[in-house]
Amino acid sequence: MKTSRDPDQLGYQRLPQSSRALKSRAQTHARALDQVEHSRLKSFIFGLAVMLILLSGWVEVLRADNLDSVLTAADSSADQSLPVTGPDPMIPSFLKASDVDREWKFRVFLDDKEIGFHHFYLDQEGVTKRLRSVADFEYKLMFVTLYEYEHENNETWNGDCLHQIESSTDANGQPFAVNGSRGNGAFTVSGEKGQAELPECIMTFAYWNPAFLKEDRLLNSQNGEFLEVNVSEPVREERMIQGQLRPSYRYKLVAKDLKLDLWYSEDDQWLGLESEARGGRTLRYELF
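Above: the chain's sequence. Below: its structure in C-alpha cell form.
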C-alpha cells in the first residue's frame, strides 16, 4: 500500500514561492538600477545643457566681427620695434631669416587665457618696406575647440602710403582674401564685397606709424573694407610692458564694431592693444 505524501513535503509549493521571491528581488533591483540610470541621465543632460550654454556664449564672443578685425588690424604694425634676437622657427617659409631686418612677436590673450600669437617681420630698402605677418589662434573649452584662426598678410609701403597688399585668412572655416595695389591715381582693392577704387594714398591699421591716428578711414586687411574711424586724444598713464612699468599714452579708436585701446611710448613706439569683445571680455596683444 502506497503512502500518500504531502506535496509541501516534496517542495512543490516552496519552489514557486522561491521563484516569486527571486523575481521580486530582481524587479526591485531593476527598479533601483533604473532610478540610478535615470539620475545619471538627468545629470548628463543637465551637464550637457550647461556645456551648450557655455559653448554658445563663447562662440558668440569668438565669432564677433570685432575679434576678426582686431586679429588682422595689427598686420600693418611694423616700424617701431624690438631688434632681432636670433632665428625664429615661426618665420614663414617664404621669408628667409637672413632677409628679416626687424621682427615683432605678440602673445594674444582672451581675458587671461593665451590663445595664440601674431608675429611680424619687416624687410626695408630705402623708403620701401615689405611686411609679412602670421597669426595663429585656437581657443578650447575643455576638450572642445571653439575657434580657430589662421592669417597671413603681405604689405608693401612707400612712405606713409600703402603700395600693395595680399592677405589670406581662415576664420574658423570661413575664408577671406584681399588683394590690392596702387596705380593710375587710385588704390584698387578686391575683397569680400568685390572690387573697389579707393583714394591713391591710403593706410591700413598701421599702428607702427602714428600718422595713421590722423586718418579718417582705414583699410581692413582681412576683408577689404574701407572703414571710417574715430580716434580720441591721448591720455598719459603708466602700463606694464615686458615686465616693466613704463610711461605711455593711450588712444581709443572706434571703427564700426571695432573698439580698440592703443598704447604708445613717449617716443611714439607702439606698445600694445586691447579690444572689447562681446560678453564683456577682452582681447589683448602683449609684446614678448
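The chain has two domains: 8-62, 64-287.
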